Amino acid sequence: MEFFSVYINLIPVTLVQGLAYAFVATGIMIPFRLISLPDLSSEGTFPLGGCLVATLITTGLHPVLATLLAACSGFAAGASTALIHLKFKVHSLLAGILTVTMLWSVSLRIMGKPNSALFGLPNVFDWLHPAIAGSLLLQCLLFLVLHILLIGLLWWGLQTHAGLALRGIGANSQLAPSLGINAVRYTVFGFGMANAITAFAGALIAQSQGYADVSMGLGLLVNGLASVIIGEAIIGRRRLLAQLCAPVVGAIAYYQLGSIALSLGLAPSDLKFATGLFVLLTIGWPVLTGKRPGAALNT
Fold first, then answer.
1. Helix (H, G, I), strand (E, B), or coil: what is residue 74?
2. If you compute the radius of gyration of the chain from its CA atoms, what whole number of angstroms results?
3. Which class for 117: exposed (0-12), middle (13-18), buried (19 or more C-beta within 10 A)?
4. Which neighbouring-strand residues pair with 116?
């Protein structure tokens, strides 16, 4: 009975966390799945968005404009990763590591200190409605509406000529130029869009929790990748809409798994190990059961 009472009390909190961090999972999914180029920049662009929005709000800028500028900063950082990869012929993973390393200094320079409090300052939630900041239910509804809007925009955009070109690069980067697709332009845009979403999430979460920290993106990539893989295991990815919804479904499931682990008595410090083990089992299960090798990762 104690397990159920603890788990039920954790559900609202982890549901808000899952919906908030689902934006990060979506930002990780775009280069990983749609462009077929793994990107590590999220661990840098997430705190960049949070640090920039904190600095702008403390200087008196409207929180909505500050949030939009934070998203733009993420776009610039993601585009930089793509350009490092394309122009300097650096592997996308190494390019992402370089970007994350440099962004730590950039975030620290923006705030001028390791962390910054936002308590008592205006935020985007107060601008929408004062009751949102104090209600987990209203926060869940807000994040859900934002996800519906984001998925709708991505679903529509990826079926336009530009969206098909972007997906074409991911399907066959060698063939795309012969079809008149500018691989550099669309790759830069794809990386920029993905990291703009991640920085937007950082800005929202910084305002939600009331502070920003230069280290708030530590370990975020593993959580986001786990969410993507779990979501794809639950709803698949054969259709575009399913692929776009998978990060949201996976993030919700991932944080509920965390609630179950905590309810069972697992220490919070052990959750990272449990996450890595679960992702390995999810990826390796088809191999262990004799199904298609790597199906969980490559389907």
1. helix
2. 19
3. exposed
4. 212
| Alpha carbon distance 26, 143 (integer Å) | 13
Give yes or no for a contact between 120 and 126, defined as CB atoms under 8 angstroms apart.
no
Q: Tokens 């295991």 belong to which residue? A: 233
The backbone torsions φ and ψ at residue 36, rounded to the nearest 5 degrees and listed phi first, read 60, 35
Nearest to 18, CA basis, from 180, 186, 242, 257: 257
CA 27 to chain centre: 4
Q: How far is CA 105 from the centre of its chain?
A: 21
Report how far Cα 57 is from the mean position of its chain's Cα atoms: 23
- What single-letter amino acid sits at 50? G
Q: Decide: 197 and 22 in contact? Cβ < 8 Å.
A: no
* Strands annotated E in the chain: 115-117, 211-213
Round to whole Å and give the CA distance between 183 and 177.
6
Q: Nearest-CA neighbor of 6 among 259, 256, 252? A: 259
The CA distance from 183 to 187, in Å, is 6
Nearest to 126 by CA among 114, 117, 138: 138
Instruction: Let me know: does 123 contact 57? Beta carbons within 8 Å.
Output: yes
Per-residue pLDDT tens, the chain, 299 aa: give them: 577 888 888 899 999 999 999 999 999 999 999 999 999 999 999 999 999 999 999 999 999 999 999 999 999 999 999 999 999 999 999 999 999 999 999 999 999 999 999 999 999 999 999 999 889 999 999 999 999 999 999 999 999 999 999 999 999 988 888 888 999 999 999 999 999 999 999 999 999 999 999 999 988 988 899 899 999 989 998 999 999 999 999 999 999 988 888 888 888 788 878 877 877 887 777 677 765 544 444 44
Whether residue 138 contacts residue 131, with contact meaning beta carbons closer than 8 Å, is answered with yes
User: What pTM does this model have?
Assistant: 0.93
Residue boundaries of the structural domains of the chain: 2-298
CATH of domain 2-298: 1.10.3470
